[in-house]
Design brief:
The protein is α+β, with helices and mostly antiparallel strands. The chain has a single domain (5-105), classed as HIT-like (HIT family, subunit A, 2-Layer Sandwich). It is 24% helix and 22% strand. The chain has three helices and five strands, in the order αβββααββ. The chain has a five-stranded antiparallel β-sheet, with helices on one face. The protein is globular. The termini are far apart. Bound molecules: guanosine-5'-monophosphate and zinc ion (ZN). Residues 1, 4, 6-7, 46, 98 line the site of zinc ion.
Length: 114
């Protein structure tokens, strides 16, 4: 999708520090990390949010979730624990309208979140 930051990253037009890639997803370091481990996992295909991604119904959301777990494992937080977040809409603070899973870990994470 034109003018979408994460489509640009998926296409390799915008640089990002990649952690993992699968057939239909990419995981890369968040530019403004909120924890020692803070990775974003995106589908290469544009979906504006989680509902759209889930609605695709073709296993793409499963692949994003599996890659999020794999990223946590490869970055060493599978045992200590991690959190996967899909911010959706303005009150949740979604700023990039290309669906993405945040994978956060490497420190104790407060609950409930702010
Ligand atoms: P949201 O607030 O939409 O849930 O999350 C967007 C995330 O994208 C934020 O955590 C932000 O730091 C990250 N981000 C924004 N622009 C860039 C960028 O150009 N590169 C990378 N790697 N992350 C970005
Ligand atoms: Zn996009």
């Amino acid at each position: 999708m034109a003018d979408c930051l994460f489509c640009g990253i998926a296409a390799g037009e915008i640089p990002a520090t990649r952690v993992l890639e699968s057939a239909r997803t990419i995981a890369f370091q968040d530019i403004n990390p909120q924890a020692p481990v803070h990775v974003l996992v995106i589908p290469k295909e544009h979906h504006p949010d989680l509902a759209s991604l889930a609605g695709a119904g073709d296993g793409l959301l499963d692949e994003v979730a599996a890659q999020a777990a794999l990223a946590a494992s490869s970055l060493g937080v599978a045992e200590s624990g991690y959190r996967i977040i899909f911010n959706t809409g303005p009150e949740a603070g979604q700023t990039v309208h290309h669906a993405h899973a945040h994978v956060l870990g490497g420190r104790p994470l407060t609950w409930p979140p702010g």
